[in-house]
Amino acid sequence: MYKLALYGSIIRATDGACIPPAEGNVDYQKYLQWLAEGNTPEPYVPPPPPIPASVTRFQALAVLAAGGYLPTIKTYISTLGEDNITRLAWENAADWERTSPTLAALAAMLGLTDTEVDELFIAAAQVSA
Question: How far is it, in rounded angstroms, from Cα 59 to Cα 113?
């Protein structure tokens, strides 16, 4: 059993060996024989994108608006006192840290899982003005 890797290399499942596509390589020849017997390697699956440690306020707001979360958040924020740390962070933070307790509180209020927050951060990192 084999799996395709980045840049045309092949990974042998039995031991994780990386086999370069070189005609003189004995392991590559065995792989070609395996293919000739009608076998198919597992496709290359790129790793997931890294989760940004932070995004700008604009990036976060853009993604929250696109996801339809802004009205709920604004309503929630309006119920908080002016000196509440969550409100202060919402209104003033230039960057939003993924590990922020304020962010965790807002995510919990929205019912978002950690995976969903990660996905929002990944999407936000792609936003530019």
Answer: 19
| Cα dist from 27 to 10, 21, 23, whole Å | 10, 9, 9
Could you tell me which of 129, 116, 105 has the C-alpha nearest to residue 64? 116
CA 63 vs CA 17, 43, 44, 98, 99: distances in Å: 41, 31, 29, 14, 18
- In tens digits, the chain (129 residues) has pLDDT values of 999 998 889 999 999 999 999 999 999 999 999 999 999 999 999 998 999 999 999 999 999 999 999 999 999 999 999 999 999 999 999 999 999 999 999 999 999 999 999 999 999 999 998
Question: What Å distances lie between residue 66 and 5, 10, 60, 69, CA to CA?
Answer: 35, 40, 10, 8
The whole model's pTM is what?
Answer: 0.71
**Nearest-angstrom CA–CA distance, 97 and 14:** 41
